[in-house]
From TrEMBL:
Assigned EC number: 3.6.1.52
Alphabetized InterPro entries for the sequence: Prot-tyrosine_phosphatase-like, Siw14-like, Tyr_Pase_AS, TYR_PHOSPHATASE_DUAL_dom
Catalyzed chemical reaction(s): 5-diphospho-1D-myo-inositol 1,2,3,4,6-pentakisphosphate + H2O = 1D-myo-inositol hexakisphosphate + phosphate + H(+); 1,5-bis(diphospho)-1D-myo-inositol 2,3,4,6-tetrakisphosphate + H2O = 1-diphospho-1D-myo-inositol 2,3,4,5,6-pentakisphosphate + phosphate + 2 H(+)
Protein name as annotated: diphosphoinositol-polyphosphate diphosphatase
Family (UniProt): Belongs to the protein-tyrosine phosphatase family. Atypical dual-specificity phosphatase Siw14-like subfamily.
Presence of keyword Cytoplasm: yes
Cell compartment(s), UniProt: Cytoplasm
One Gene Ontology cellular component: cytoplasm
Pfam families on file: Y_phosphatase2
Keywords tagged on the record: Cytoplasm, Hydrolase
Domain Tyrosine-protein phosphatase: 106-259
Listed GO MF terms: inositol diphosphate tetrakisphosphate diphosphatase activity; phosphatase activity
Lineage start: Eukaryota, Fungi, Dikarya, Ascomycota, Pezizomycotina
Length: 281
């Protein structure tokens, strides 16, 4: 066995060229390389001029071996704006594996690969939603759709449904009719993958998902536990009151038609008061 001892003092420094030129001052920005690699001290006037001459490099092909780019604090605002623009441009051109994916707040899966829930999507969430290959979006608030969101929906060929589900504040404000309209969209398999969202993704979305759970035969305690998972300390007793009172038989025929529940369940006593989409048309 041999012990190899290396004398650190005899190794070339990382900031020293092969010919012995000390590059440390250049690395620290104190001096700039002159012609043919010689080093000359920057005068105060030259340094001020050089700091204003900021070059942003688009790609590797535009980099030259003898080019030195200096970015000073005086160019912070302009360079930050330019870099932000270039970053956005890069993300547009980047392959999917390099794209930043940020889900909306309170995002979750309701039914694997079919139904999702979230808060109101923002621009930084669009790449994530695009990866889901959404076919439909159900919005539960009546506010106008922001222009960037409307453009995202149109560019990706997404069907956009809007059913206004009022917030249960002060009293139970959600009507059975409004919930039935929302569930008709949610139960329709031709809308999948589907995203359901309100503003925060807690209360209105939570009520729709809870009522869907009742239609699918889930245990009420599990439904409430799921509601609290997203609502947290903001959970509303009036929301739970509505969940308990909602009669899932009002949309049971649709659940049967779409194959969500077997056809041997009791028929809905509300069928005469609830129009099908064909009847409503």
């Amino acid at each position: 066995m041999y012990n190899i001892v290396v004398d650190p003092g005899k190794l070339p420094r990382a900031d020293t060229l092969v010919d012995g030129t000390d590059m440390a001052p250049i690395v620290r920005g104190w001096v700039q390389p002159g012609a043919k690699g010689s080093i000359s001290q920057l005068s105060q006037e030259t340094k001020g001029t050089e700091e204003k001459d900021v070059a942003l490099i688009d790609n590797e092909e535009s980099v030259h071996a003898d080019a030195v780019t200096i970015v000073s604090s005086s160019a912070t605002t302009a360079s930050s704006t330019a870099l932000s623009s270039r970053r956005s441009s890069f993300e547009d051109r980047a392959p999917a594996r390099l794209t930043r994916f940020t889900p909306p707040e309170n995002f979750g899966t309701v039914v694997d690969g079919k139904i999702f829930r979230s808060s109101f999507p923002q621009e930084e969430n669009f790449s994530y939603l695009k990866a889901l290959k959404l076919k439909s979006i159900l919005t539960l608030v009546k506010e106008d759709t922001p222009e960037p969101y409307a453009r995202f929906i149109a560019e990706n060929g997404i069907r956009h449904y809007r059913v206004h589900i009022p917030a249960n504040k002060g009293s139970v404000c959600i009507s059975t009719e409004a919930m039935v309209q929302a569930l008709m969209v949610v139960l329709d398999r031709s809308n999948y993958p589907l995203l359901i969202h309100c503003n925060k993704g807690k209360h209105r979305t939570g009520c729709v998902v809870a009522c869907l759970g009742k239609v699918l035969g889930r245990n009420l305690s599990q439904i409430k536990e799921d509601y609290h998972t997203y609502a947290g300390i903001k959970a509303r007793a009036l929301d739970e009151q509505f969940m308990e009172a909602f009669d899932e038989r009002s949309v049971l025929w649709m659940a049967r038609f779409q194959g969500w529940v077997p056809d041997d369940e009791p028929r809905s006593p509300l069928s005469s008061r609830t129009q099908s989409p064909r009847q409503a048309a």
